[in-house]
Amino acid sequence: MNEKPIIGITVGDPAGIGPEISIKALNDEHIYDICNPVLFADYSVVRYYIDLLGIDAGINIISEPDESEFTHGIINLIDADQIKDIDDIEIGKISGKAGRACSAYIEKAVDMALDSQINALVTGPINKEAWKIGGVPYIGHTEMLGELTSVKDPLTMFQVNSLRIFFLTRHIALRKACDMITQSRVSDYIERCIVMLKALGIESPHLAVAGLNPHSGEHGLFGDEEVTEIQPAVNSARQGGLNVSGPVPADSVFWACANGKYDAVLSLYHDQGHIAAKTLDFYRTVSITLGLPFIRTSVDHGTAMDIAGQGIASSISMEEAIKVASAYAKVYGQPGA
């Protein structure tokens, strides 16, 4: 893809900071240098934030990207027509109406991505409680995207600078996550992570698998998961010709990857990888969903209801998510496509 990719941007929960950071990001001229952005939201919400922020921008309501004017100062909007008046929701408050609107933005954007009208998807933050109240039948973005695209168990990868992190488990209790660290699951994820790194244009990826216990268990002294489950999976992958190391103690593996020793790390549970990425650079950590027919990136923070509508939210994470989506959209090839 030599020309600029068309990037669909969903604003997330309209009662949170998603609309604000999306519009702030689109106020950056550099965004239009690297991609052609299309926003998925409600006109009333976009209009409210343009006025609140004092941004000099016009709104071009379109039904498809071909109708867009890809020029800085013009926001090309697919109007979901869910919130007809901004007063229909309370900014900074969780509501089912906002949750349903957020879901509608994603559904429309996915439809267009599957129809190849947009080349990549960038998502603003959702509120899971609002989804539950609103009757949205998904626990999160990744699960919804998997269902809408008929992709079972898509992979989550974080990227911040040169650090890439995959996740063996996501939104489950830590006790259950430990039970899911099995040789078969680790083996499966090692293979899938390496396939996805190749899909991102890394020809000969080197993957590290993080340890679970302190010092990777010290050969069973502090726990035996490394000995009974993780090491056998790593050994099997090596015998199959894959370049994988581990288990590497979690207190050093992320630093080593960030400094170029590995191309990515397989984190064993949610917070293990989240803490590493966000501590390195909270605002520039980008969440990427891989295995879908299109690349999807997301901000790696929540809806921040406590500061919504105040005009003080940072758009750095949204800008980074757009940049990463634009870069990977040019090289990403879904395995088997």
Name the poorly predicted regions.
Answer: none
Would you report the number of β strands? 12
Number of helices: 12
Taking the sheet with the most strands, its summary is: 12 strands, mixed
Question: In percent, how much strand structure appears in the residues?
Answer: 15-25%
- Mean pLDDT over all positions: 94
- The level of helicity is 25-40%
Describe the structure.
The chain has 337 residues and is an alpha/beta fold. The protein contains twelve helices and twelve strands. It has a twelve-stranded mixed β-sheet with strand order 3-4-2-1-5-12-11-6-7-10-8-9, with helices on both faces. The protein starts with 5 loop residues before the first strand and ends in an 8-residue tail after the last helix. The model has no long low-confidence stretch (mean pLDDT 94).
What is this entry, summarized?
This protein is of the alpha/beta class and 337 residues long. It contains twelve helices and twelve strands. A hairpin with a 4-residue loop joins strand 11 (286-290) and strand 12.
